[in-house]
Write a structure and sequence with these properties.
homotetramer; 406 residues; alpha/beta; Rossmann fold; 2 domains; 8-stranded mixed sheet; 7-stranded parallel sheet; disordered N terminus; adenosylhomocysteinase activity (chains A, B, C, D); Ado_hCys_hydrolase_NAD-bd (chains A, B, C, D)
C-alpha cells in the first residue's frame, strides 16, 4: 500500500512538473525576479507561511520565493487544491531545502483548518495570506511578535485587517488586490477575456447577435461587457450605482436594472461581488431557454437556492450546464451552478498566464519589501497599499515583457 | 465478451444521446424543419447515402432527415468519427426504421473505404456527399442511373464534379459550401469565433497586446483577423492577392508578406487553404518563443516536416502545444502539430451550434429540393449552387431564430 | 465691366489654385501617374471630352490627364460646379495648351445642356462620361465614328449603355463605379467616414449612446453602420433583402424594418439608392425630436414632399438643419433637406482625399487603356468592367502609398 | 455712426439668438434645471459674477441661472468671446432684469482685465470663476467678506486656490473640473469625438490605416486614442508615466516614447497638458509630410517656436493647415498653429452639446448649493470637490436624458 501511494505521488509530481513547465516559460516577470533573487537572496533566513490557491501558476510563484532563500510552509484554499501541483512542490528541493505544502483537493473544512494550523506551527516570520486566515490565527495564538510582516491577496482580507483585526496586528501587511495594476490587468482584462472564452468553450454558442446582460460595471463587469461586445454580442449593463451606470451609458451600452433587462436577455452574467443580485423577480421575467452565469468570486450572486426551490426539475445537459424546468413551462439554463463559470467546465484555465505573472510579481516584490523593511522598520503596522515604486517598477517590466513598443 | 461489447455500446449510446441533447435544444432551424417534415415527408421512399463528419451536431441533421421519411445509410470521415454518436444513431428507431451508420474512430483507411462501399451497397437514391467520394464511387460502379441527385458539402468536392467527374454525373448535385450564407455565417463568423476561443483555451495566453499575423484574408482569414483585433490583439495580415490585401489595409490592418512580418509576430495563424504558405524562410525569422498555428482545413499550410527536419528536438509541453528547439538556440511553439487547432486540445467544440444549424439547414432544404425536383426534372445535371430561394428562406428563418429585431 | 470680371476671375483662379494645393500634395497615386505620363504621353494627339463634378480633387485628375498629352474640354455637373476651380483650370497652361472647362455654379439646366453640347463641339476622341450624357449626345449627333472609347463614372450610366444605348455605341466604355476597389475604398470606407464626420460636424451631437437606424446594408450602408457603431453609437439596420439582413445580423446589428425601428430611433440615415424608403409610416412612429438624414446619391430616399405636406411648419434652425413641426405636437429634424448630408453644412469636404486619389486613378488608367487599345482594337465595344490588371495595379500602388506594411 | 452700431448690434443679437436655439433644444438637463428654478428661485437676491468662455452653449447656462433669480455680470475669456452671443445676452430681459456681459472678441489683454474689474465692480455675491481670476481679484480688493462662495471651472484655478490663495479665501469654492462625470463625459468622450471629427473635417484625410501617435494617456488621451482606433486608425500611445503606459498597453495600443514613435507616425496629437512634450528631437525624426496637432488646453505642447526657428519657410495651405519646410528637404504639416485644433478650421463646434449640458449642470447645481449653503454655513471654506449627491443626481438625470435603458 505504501508503495502504491509513493507511486501515485511520483506520478502526480511528474504530471505537476509537466503542467508547470509551459506556464513557467510564459512568466517572464517571475523569471527575472528569480534571477535577481538568486543573487540578492532577500528571504535568506526567513520562513514564509503561505495560504493561497494551489495551481500550476502558484507553483512558479513558490519557486521564485524559494530562489530568494525562503523556506516555505504553505496550504491551498479549501476545495480547489490541485494535488499534482502539491506533489510537485513537495518533491522540489531548492538549495538543499524542501518545501512543505499541506492539503489535498478532498480535504474537508476540518482538515483544511488543520493545515492552516500546521503552517503556523512551522513558525513563519513572513505571511503570504489570503482572506486574513493566517493573520487571525497568529493573533489568536498570541504569536504576532515573531512576524515581520506579510501580504494579503484579497480585498476582503484587507477589510478584515482594518476592522476585526484593527490594532491587533503589529506588523505591516501589504494588500495586493487594491493595486491599480491588478484591477486593470487582472480584473478588467484577464477576467473579461476569460469570461468570453469560457462562455464559448462551455456553451458552444454563437456570440454575435446574442443578447448579454452584464450585472455590475466594476472592473470585472467593465471587462466582461467590453469583451463580449467586441465579439459581436449585443450587451446591456445592469448597474444600480449612478456613477458607474453613467460611465456604462457613455461607453455606449444600454443601461438599466436587471429586472428591466431580464425579458430581453439571452444570457445574464453577474459580476458584482454582492449576494442575491439576480433573484426571483429576474427569473420570472426571463424568456424560455435564457442562460444564467456568474463570474464573481462568491457563488451567491445568482440566488440558486430560490431558483431550484421554484423549479419542477433540474438536470445536467452537458458539462457545467444545468437545465432548470419551471412550473410555467419555461426552462432556464444555469452554468456551473452559479459558481465562477470561468473556472468551470472541461479544461478551464482561468486568468491568462501573463496576468498572473503580473499579479504574482506584485506578491513577490511586496514580500521582498516586507523582508527588507523589517530591519529598518520603515513600513507602518497594519494593512497598507502596494508601495507606489513597486507598482511603477512592475508596470515598466510588464511593458518590456509585452514588447509594448512594437 | 459479447456481453461486454453490448454493454460498451449501450454506454456509448447513452453518452451520445446526452451530448446530442444540449446541441439539439439550440438548433431551432433544424427543429422547425423536422416539424415540417413530419407533415410533408419529402423523403418518403428514399434512401439517403451519407458521407459526413460524425459528431453530435451531425446527429441532429440525421434525425431531421429521418423525420422526413428518409432511410439513411452513412459513414463518417476518416479519423474523426465520434463512436458514441455512431452508437446513439444506430440505436435510434424512427417510424420503426433503424438508421445505419458505419465506421469507428480507429478505422484505418482500408476500413474507411469499405464503409463508403457499404453505403453504396445500401443502394441509396439520394447522396449527401463529402469530397465527391460517393459520386465517384457510384460512377465507378456504373450505378448512376439509380440516383436522383444529391448534395456536396465541400468546395473541393464541387471542383471534382466539374473536372474529374464532368459529364459523368447525370444527376443534379447542389454544392453547399459556396453559399454566401455559409461563407458569412460559418467561414467568417464561426471560424473567427472558434479560433479566438481555441487560442485562449489551449495556450491560456493574454490576447491584448499580443502580435498576431493572420496569413490569408479570405472569408476565414477576415473572421480570424477581426475577432483577434476585437479582443485587443495587434493584428497584421499577410496576403499575396492584391485585392484582398487592399481590403485588409482599408480595414485598418498592417499588411505585408508572412516573411516580412515574421520577426514581429508573436503568433502566426494560417488560413489560406494552400500548402506550405509558412515555411523555412518564415521560421528562420521568427523570434524565440513565437507560436505557429493553422486553422485551414488541411494540415499542410505550415510546412511542419521542414520545421521538424531543421529542429534539434521537439516535445509536447501541454495538450496540443509542442515546443520545437532550433539549432540556433531559439525555440518555436507549434499548436496541434499544424492541424486545425480550433478542433484540438481538451474539449474542442468546433463551430458554434447555431452556425451548424444554419449549415445543416442548407443541406436539409437542398436535399428536399433534390427529392422534389426528381419528379419534375426541374434541376439540371451536375454541380450547381444552392438555389437562391433556399438561401433567402434560410436567411429569413435565421433572422427569426436570432430574434434579430430585438 | 470687363476689367472687373477679369479681376474676379483672377481672384477665383488664385483661390482655386490654393485649394488645389493641399489636395494635390495628398494624392500620391495621381502624382505617380502624372510623372509616368510625362514620359509616356499616352494621350498625345487626343482630346478628352469630360463631364464630371468639378471640385478641387477633380482638378488634380484633370492636371494628370493633361500631363499625359491630352487636350481637355469639359463641363461640371448641374448645380455643383465650383467656380474658382473652373477659373483655375481655365487659367492653366500645360505644354503651351490651355484647358477648356465650361460651366458655372449658377447655370440653369439649359445652360448646362449647352455646356455638354460645347464639349461635344470640341470634337473629343475620348469620353470621360457621367451618367451617359456624352455618349447619348454623340449617338444623337451620329458622331460615334470619331470616338475611340471612354469611361463612365456611374453605375446608372453603365446601365444606360446596356439598355437605352445598347448596340448604338461602337466603342468601348469602361464603367468605373462597379470596381471592387471603389466599392470598398469609396462606398464603404470613405462614405462611412464622411457620414460619421458630417453627423458630428453639422449637429454637434454626442454619438455614444445615440440610437441610429441605418436604412440599407449595401456597401455604403455597411460603412455607415460600422463607423457609427465604432464611435459608440447604438446602431440598428433596416434592410429588406434577406441576405444582406442576415449579414447585418451576424455582424451583431439589430435588424428589422424602418417602420419597426422608427420609434426607437434617435436618428435615421438612408443609404439605399431607392426612392421613398422612409415615408409617412416611418414619420408617424418617430419620437419627438428625432432626426432624418440621407447619404444616398439622389435626394429621394426620404419622402420630403410628404413630410412637408403633413407638417404645420418648417424652418432652418442651423446650417443644414431644419425643424419640422407636426400637427400632433411632435417635431422632426431634417438634415440637408434630404439631400446628401455628407456634402452639406459649413465646410463639407466630401470623400477623403485618398479615396478620390484611388477613384481617379481608376479613371486615369482606364482612359490610358482606352487610348492604348485604340490602335490594337483589343477592347470590345460597349460597357465593360475595369480590366483586372488595372485593379491589381492600383491595389498594389495604394498599399505602397498607405505604407501598409508599417 | 451710432445708428450703424445699433444696427450692427441688432444683427448680432439676432444671429446669436438663432445659433442658441438649436443648442438649447438639445440641452435637456439645463432645460429641466430652468424649469425647477422658475419655481424655487435659488438665486433670488444674488448677483453672480461670471468669467467663462462665451459661446452659444454658455448662453443657455446664463439663461438658466437667470431663471433662478440671479442677476448676472460676466465677461468672456480673452480672445475667444463670440460677439453675437454677447449681443444676444445683453439684449435679454429676464423678469424685467437685464444681464450684463462685458467683452468683445477683439479686446486686448488690458481691455480684458478691465472687464474682469467691471465684473467685480458689480459687487457679485457669488462667483462663477475660471482660472481663479475673480477670486484673486476679490482678494486683492479686500472684498472677500461680501462673497458667499462660488465655483471654479478649471483644475488650474483649483490649484491656485490651494496654493497662491490658500487661507485667503474665506468662502467655499466648488471645483468643477475634477468631477468624475466631467472627466468621463467631457475629457474622454467629448474630446475624443471632437478630435476625431476635427481631424477629418480639417484635413479631409482618410483615417483607416493612418498611423497616429497620441501623446499622453490621461482622460483626453484615452478618448482620442480609442476614437481614432475605432475609426480604423493605427494608433500608438506615447506616455512617460508607467501606470498609464501600462493601461495603454493592456488596452492593446503600441506604447513607447514620442521620440521612438516619431519615424512611424503619420500624425502626432498631443494631449498631455504639459509644455514642450513634442520638440526638436521629435521633429527631426518625423517623415516627410507628417502632421502635428494639439488638443490640449494650452498651445505649448508642441514647441512651435522651435519648429519655426528651424524651418526654411512656412505658409498656410488650407484653413488651419500650415506647411513648414525644413532645411533637409522634408516638410511637416502643423494644424491650427499648435493651438487646440478641435476648435479650429471652418465651422468648429467644439465639445458635443450634450457633454456641455452635463458640464453646465455641474456648474448650475454647484452654484445652487453655494447659494443654499450660505444660510446654513454647511460648506467649508476653500476649494472643494463637487458634492457626491450632486454628482449622483446629475448621473441619474443624464441616464434619463439619454434614454439609456433603450
Amino acid at each position: 500500500m505504501l508503495g502504491m501511494t509513493e507511486t501515485k505521488n511520483d506520478l502526480d509530481a511528474a504530471s505537476g512538473a509537466r503542467r508547470v513547465e509551459w506556464i513557467r516559460s510564459r512568466m517572464p516577470l517571475l523569471a527575472q525576479a528569480r534571477e535577481d533573487f538568486e543573487r540578492t537572496r532577500p528571504f535568506e533566513g526567513h520562513r514564509i507561511g503561505m495560504s493561497l490557491h494551489v495551481e500550476p501558476k502558484t507553483a512558479v510563484l513558490v519557486e521564485t520565493l524559494a530562489a530568494g532563500g525562503a523556506e516555505i510552509a504553505g496550504t491551498g484554499n479549501h476545495g480547489s487544491t490541485q494535488d499534482d501541483v502539491v506533489a510537485y512542490l513537495n518533491d522540489l528541493e531548492v538549495d538543499g531545502r524542501r518545501l512543505t505544502i499541506f492539503g489535498r483537493r478532498d480535504d474537508d473544512l476540518v482538515a483544511h483548518h488543520a493545515n492552516v494550523g500546521r503552517v503556523l506551527d512551522a513558525q513563519p516570520s513572513i505571511l503570504l495570506d489570503n482572506g486574513g486566515d493566517l493573520a487571525a490565527g497568529i493573533v489568536a495564538r498570541g504569536g504576532t511578535a515573531s512576524i515581520l510582516g506579510g501580504t494579503e491577496e484579497t480585498t476582503s482580507g484587507g477589510d478584515r485587517l482594518r476592522t476585526e483585526l484593527a490594532g491587533l496586528v503589529p506588523f505591516p501587511v501589504i494588500v495586493i488586490n487594491d493595486s491599480l495594476l491588478k484591477q486593470i490587468g487582472e480584473n478588467k482584462h484577464a477576467v473579461g477575456q476569460s469570461v468570453a472564452e469560457s462562455f464559448m468553450r462551455i456553451t458552444n454558442l454563437m456570440v454575435p447577435g446574442t443578447r448579454f446582460v452584464v450585472v455590475g460595471y466594476g472592473w470585472c463587469g467593465r471587462g466582461v461587457a467590453h469583451y463580449l461586445r467586441s465579439l459581436g454580442g449585443k450587451v446591456a449593463v445592469a448597474e444600480i450605482d449612478e456613477l458607474k451606470a453613467f460611465e456604462a451609458a457613455l461607453d455606449g451600452f444600454r443601461v438599466s436594472t436587471a429586472v428591466d433587462l431580464a425579458p430581453w436577455a439571452d444570457v445574464i452574467i453577474t459580476a458584482t461581488g454582492r449576494p442575491g443580485v439576480v433573484g426571483a423577480e429576474v427569473f420570472d421575467r426571463m424568456h424560455d431557454g435564457a442562460i444564467l452565469a456568474n463570474c464573481g468570486h462568491f457563488p451567491w450572486e445568482i440566488d440558486v437556492p430560490a431558483l431550484l426551490a421554484s423549479s419542477v426539475s433540474s438536470r445536467a445537459v452537458d458539462e457545467a450546464i444545468d437545465r432548470i424546468e419551471l412550473p410555467d413551462g419555461r426552462h432556464l439554463v444555469l452554468l456551473a451552478q452559479g459558481r465562477m463559470f470561468n473556472l468551470a467546465g472541461r479544461s478551464p484555465k482561468g486568468n491568462s498566464i501573463q496576468s498572473m505573472d503580473l499579479g504574482f510579481l506584485l506578491q513577490t516584490l511586496s514580500l521582498e519589501r516586507i523582508a527588507l523593511a523589517a530591519a529598518s522598520g520603515s513600513l507602518p503596522a497594519g494593512a497598507q497599499p502596494v508601495p507606489d515604486d513597486i507598482e511603477r517598477t512592475i508596470a515598466r517590466r510588464m511593458l518590456t515583457a509585452m514588447s509594448a513598443s512594437a
